[in-house]
Amino acid sequence: MRIKFFCDESGNTGNNFLDEKDPFFVLGGWLDKCNNSSNIEFIDDIACILESAHEIKSTKLIKSSRGRRKIKSVIECMVRYDYLPFFSIVHKKFAIAARVVDVLLDPEYNNMVSRKITYNEDALPVKKYAEIIYKLSDYVLSNFAEAYRYLDYNLMCQSIELISKELKEINEIDLSNKVFNSKILISDNLNDEIGLEKNQAPNIFSLYTLFQILDNYGTRERLSIDFIHDNQKEYRDNMNNISNLFFNDRNDKIRYAFKQRKIFFNSIKSLSFEDSKNNTLIQCADITVGTVNYILKKLIFNKSLDNIDRELLTTLKPYIISWGNPQLTHFMIAEETFQKWMNYF
């Protein structure tokens, strides 16, 4: 059976990974399990809820209780017509910490790091290292992000020294020494990273992880999925890079290539981009991911939830914290952030 997945994003701040007002990037949308996208009754129901002939954005609806009630009705309508939501949620600061581990603790370029780290067999797996580095100052992490963005040798050496120094200050001596040791082959490491750095931005990583959980579901259910993302002019070049990165004409499979590793997606057959102004389902994806981001920011900033916020949280909860099969949400966040969310859920 061939079906469509309609996708949009929320929280894209470009290269500013440490935006205090927008700490999360959420990518996600709705899988049309029953091919209802051309169902007139469904389209009419959505139109009646939104009460507008023009494009409606989550940023507008979220501002009022009335708008948020419309959002709740949209989500309930999607579920009623057998649409299934999938999400990839990234805490941008944690994404920087994870990138530090990937680059500076790569056993190919650091002889103090065991190759077991690649398979999470080391005493401290990759995520645990990232958890430690996540606790470093914003200044140190933004310094690394800047150095990595330009793959600048001198800036990266300065960043390595800053990271190593701060790790020593929090008594992470072994990790500090490993990071400092990365300077020896950092020039070779950066040269090999050329052309790959765009692949590590939150929207690219999120797309890959969203593909993973969506493909797992599609493979299990024997589906062929056409993935449709909102076409954003300001990120057109990046969108084209995404398309080139994932699509492989030779075997009609989506492909993700990173260094020597290749992962093939069996059920996802195409990746295309459409203007959300002309696609109600992409608008529904925007409304949903924008609301997920809105709720998560309220929780992380300790802001009180009003009645409709709590209703939205209850509506979204089964999909955000789905631990069973299928997995509907992938998180790339620090453990302390995750636990804070779970306390609310």
Nutshell version of this structure?
Pfam families: DUF3800. This protein is an alpha/beta fold and 345 residues long.
Provide key terms for this protein:
single chain, 345 residues, alpha/beta, 6-stranded mixed beta sheet, 9 strands, 17% strand, DUF3800, DUF3800 domain-containing protein
Structure, described:
- The protein is 51% helix and 17% strand.
- It has 345 residues and is of the alpha/beta class.
- It has a domain at 93-197.
- Strand 5 (247-248) and strand 6 form a beta hairpin.
- Helix 3 (65-80) packs across helix 12, helix 4 (92-104) packs across helix 5 and helix 6 (138-150) packs antiparallel against helix 7 (153-169).
- The model is unreliable at 257-261 (pLDDT under 50).
